[in-house]
Amino acid sequence: MTPLSNLQSPISVFMSSLASFTHLRVHSHFSLLGATTSIPSLVERARHDGLTHFALTDRNVLYGAVAHARACQAAGLQPITGMTVTVAGIDGVVDQPAELVLLARDQCGYRSLCRISSAIQRSPQREQTAQRGVAWEVVKENRDGLICLAGGRGGWVEQAVRSGDDALTLRLVSKLAGSFDDACFLALELHSAADEAVARTITALADRFGVRTVALQPVYCLLPSEQPRLRLLSAIARNCTLSEVAADDLPGGDDPAVMLHWLSPAQVAERFVAFPAALAAVSEIVQQCQPALPDGRPIWPALDLPTGESADSELARQAQHGLTERDITDAAAPVRLRHELDAIASHGFAPFFLLVADVVRFARSQSIPVSTRGSVANSLVAYCLGITTVDPIANDLIFERFLNPARTSLPDIDL
């Protein structure tokens, strides 16, 4: 038998969920004309409420991702990068657009979000694409590293449940669960007592398909008094009067029962007291989501390197070959070449040199005039690779003017 001391009571599970709670669907004013609150205000409220993590899920864009990450780090919170995506429909299942909340587990997930957002933002009909949604295939092809929260008033599943279309509901849950596997969660929103029946139906569906539910409170503003401003923002976005704003153009469908402001962890816990598993799932999701933004290191294009070679070893091989080809006989040349290669490797810049050398070789092979300017002429490695045409040893040029141990930023090689 399991010792009683090792058993967690429902109360302890509930309190643990409350301690690790965070909002997983939050919109800032980077959801242009779609939400009222700035990122600093949201982060300050999260810190005030004792949250340890904070997610940002603006609609179809990642404009606020960097500001969000920096604000969280300054406040001692871990950022969770996400996006609320409008999806056009699922072929053979549903034609109507709906929303999915996608959270990045890691940098792979962040890249997936970038590709999905770019599919919308680069469209010649960007506004129309944002309204009708990105193709489901785009989401499916770029699901690596993502957690999908499907449901809520703006999601297919809840809409199908509310319409009483049981067959469609089953197809939707099957499709979503099959596409995202264990990264799929069915979101529950509770705004009124009537929502509990819908939530219980969705919970039963989740149990049937082996997926989990998660508590979700959409946040579009900080205070209840700010919610009417959402109608004003929508009117500005559509260049119409307040009375002409359609219900479908407002979060929550303009239902007065739907609350879109920030709730404290205690308030959310009170709402979801009948759904402890959905509240506990928030903690599980939070633990899966690691910092997702690039850490500042350069992201290089894929290099076609010989089998078994690294960028550093290939750079050393090409540089040594160039030293021989250039017929540099100065006794100091091998020592200096080794010194430069070590400096380049310590900064992680070997791919940069290989890429530029490849560009220069191609230009010359196509009879395209190419040369360099600036301090790159001080590099023996660049000379041996054929990037520059000036011998830095013969001209007594100092490598450290181009790259020195104190420099952390990528140097310029101007062509």
**Biggest sheet details:** 6 strands, mixed
Write down the Rg: 28 Å
- Count the strands? 6
What sequence of helices (H) and strands (E) makes up the elements? HHEHEEHHHEHHEHEHHHHHHH
Distance between the termini: 73 Å
Uncertain runs: 1-9
Structural class: alpha/beta
Helix content: 40-55%
- In the sheet with the most strands, the strands line up as 1-2-3-4-5-6
The whole-number mean of residue pLDDT values reads: 92
Beta-strand proportion: 5-15%
* Principal-axis shape: elongated
Number of helices: 16
Q: How would you describe this structure to a colleague?
A:
This protein is an alpha/beta fold. Helix content is 43%, strand content 9%. It has a 6-stranded mixed β-sheet. Strand 5, helix 9 and strand 6 form a beta-alpha-beta unit. Helix 13 packs antiparallel against helix 14. It starts with 9 loop residues before the first helix and ends in a 30-residue tail after the last helix.
Summary of the model, kept short:
The protein is an alpha/beta fold.
Characteristic terms for this protein:
415 residues; elongated; 16 helices; 43% helix; alpha/beta; disordered N terminus
